[in-house]
Specification:
Layout (H helix, E strand, L loop, with lengths): L2 H17 L2 H10 L4 H21 L12 H19 L1 H5 L6 H12 L15 H16 L1 H8 L7 H8 L12 H25 L4 H12 L17 H14 L3 H8 L4 H5 L1 H23 L6 H16 L14 H13 L12 H19 L8 E2 L2 E2 L2 H27 L4 H12 L20 H15 L3 H4 L4 H4 L2
Antiparallel strand pairs: 1-2
Helix pairs in contact: 1-3, 1-4, 2-3, 2-7, 4-6, 4-9, 6-7, 6-21, 7-11, 8-10, 10-11, 10-12, 10-13, 11-12, 12-16, 15-16, 16-17, 18-19, 19-20, 19-21, 20-21
Length: about 475
């Protein structure tokens, strides 16, 4: 492991994070809300630290040899924790939170696009800080590393190792021969949809500031809002449906969006994962609409469809926005939404959870085993559509599933050990490792995470990064063999 090289690259990533603070600084100056000084200090500390690391650990000889797989993993995992730590500076220096754990929790909740919050009164927070809070979503959605690959040429060496370690999904799509071009392409698609949603939200009555902040939360499937009541504060059918549509767009593989923009619409319906995802959305909306309307939660079918479709899209894509308190809905609907929390969005999307593709592969492999019991001499393979899935991918999915469930349960037990009730402990752990945001119980859609003990917050913060980096990239750092030559 070439530690100087690893710290050299992490320094560049930290400096990039610092430079993005210029945008909330501009909003702070515009609104004159008192955040300009803490934002400038945060930006200066972050850029300076990153720059010192970059030049101090620079080794011209190291860049001549390819980046190893272990180095790529170390850079991504440690880079994300570094981004979370420095991203918490504006909250600390701006006086938003008094404790380090709250600052880091809110920062990594943003970067990991989880959306769980320890803010108790969002509307009392200065605009400059709120913009930074939402911007962390947008940066983390498509990926800090992927962004760096797109704009920093010197990260092109060994870029595929970084890309594989960060991009969610069993097998990351490479759209272009060069990994830098793939990163640029993904960010162009991300920017395009973000711009379209911002304009549409402004047509619905939001100002530019709120439109940008809610677009960041939507396209990154993060869920940070500028209002205490989240999207429900606007009480607009138009805004609800615009955000619903873009949450679903963000929950679909961005490689498919790229191909769709290349005038190849058939790729959507040929993709087996998209078909299952779309089928789940439609089925769950129909079932929950019937349940909430029959249960008398809403007076009309139109209202039932409006609130149901929004909440299904929000939970299934792990965005976390809320327009209704689903804990007041019938038990069946809550069970369905809990299932949605486990599944999450598509591979290659900004959504969290286990991903639809993994669930499909697990079910197909399980059926394959049953088939072999009936036909022991048969030769068959797991397929996604017409493509045969390699055995190492299938085994990797099983390993991910076991680790995901095991770490989720372990985190829930630790949180419960701090004095939190069992339901809330499991819901909070699921919400964080699945990058969902709100859960049920004491961390439901009308609650937040501020009241949890500090130990629980640290555990849940770690879970957020675990979920965002797909478990392996972080947990492998604790395997002794990783550090041996």
């Amino acid at each position: 492991m070439r530690w100087k090289y690893v710290l050299h690259i992490i320094g560049a990533l930290v400096a990039c994070v610092g430079m993005t603070m210029i945008f909330p600084l501009a909003w702070g100056l515009y609104y004159a809300d008192g955040t300009a000084t803490p934002m400038m200090l945060s930006m200066g500390i972050t850029v300076l630290t990153g720059g010192v690391m970059f030049f101090l650990f620079r080794d011209p000889e190291a860049s001549k040899s390819p980046m190893s797989h272990r180095e790529g993993i170390a850079i991504v995992a440690l880079g994300w924790f570094a981004a979370g730590a420095f991203g918490g500076l504006p909250f600390y220096l701006g006086g938003t939170f008094e404790t380090v754990v709250d600052c880091v929790f809110e920062s990594l909740s943003g970067f990991s696009t989880t959306g769980s919050s320890v803010l108790t009164n969002i509307e009392a927070v200065p605009r400059g800080i709120l913009f930074w809070r939402s911007l962390t979503h947008w940066l983390g959605g498509m990926g800090i590393i992927v962004l760096s690959l797109a704009i920093l040429p010197f990260l092109g060496v060994g870029g595929m190792q970084l890309y594989r370690a960060e991009v969610p999904g069993p097998a990351p799509d490479k759209l272009k021969p060069r990994i830098k071009d793939t990163a640029v392409t993904l960010w162009k698609v991300y920017l395009l949809f973000s711009a379209i949603e911002t304009v549409l939200l402004m047509f619905g009555g939001m100002d530019l500031f709120d439109s940008l902040c809610h677009t960041f939360g939507t396209m990154a499937t993060g869920g940070f809002s500028t209002r205490n009541a989240s999207v429900a504060a606007y009480d607009s059918v138009y805004i609800d449906y615009v955000i619903t549509i873009f949450m679903l767009i963000a929950g679909i593989n961005f490689s498919l969006h790229y191909l769709l923009l290349k005038w190849r619409p058939s790729v959507l319906f040929k993709d087996p994962e998209f078909r299952v995802f779309a089928g789940m959305v439609v089925f769950f909306i129909i079932v929950i609409t019937i349940a909430v309307y029959a249960g008398g939660n809403y007076p009309t079918v139109a209202d039932s469809v409006r609130y149901t479709s929004f909440q299904v899209a929000s939970i299934l894509t792990t965005t976390g926005f809320a327009t209704a308190d689903y804990e007041l809905w019938p038990g069946l609907t809550q069970a369905i939404l809990l299932f949605c929390m486990f599944v999450g969005g598509c591979a290659g999307s900004t959504g969290g959870g286990m991903k639809v593709m993994r669930i499909m592969l697990l079910l197909k492999q399980s059926y394959q085993e049953l088939f072999r019991l009936i036909h022991p001499r048969s030769v068959s393979h797991v397929k996604m559509g017409k493509t045969v899935v390699q055995d190492d991918v299938v085994s990797g999915v099983w390993g991910f599933f076991i680790l995901w469930i095991g770490l989720f349960v372990l985190a829930a037990f630790i949180v419960a050990g701090t004095g939190v009730d069992v339901v809330t402990s499991f819901a909070a752990s699921l919400a964080c490792i699945g990058n969902i945001g709100p859960g049920i119980g004491g961390v439901g859609p009308t609650d937040n995470f501020a009241w949890l003990p500090d130990t629980a917050k640290w555990v849940l913060t770690f879970c957020m990064v675990l979920g965002r980096l797909e478990i392996y990239t972080v947990i492998i750092l604790f395997v002794p063999e990783f550090w041996r030559k």
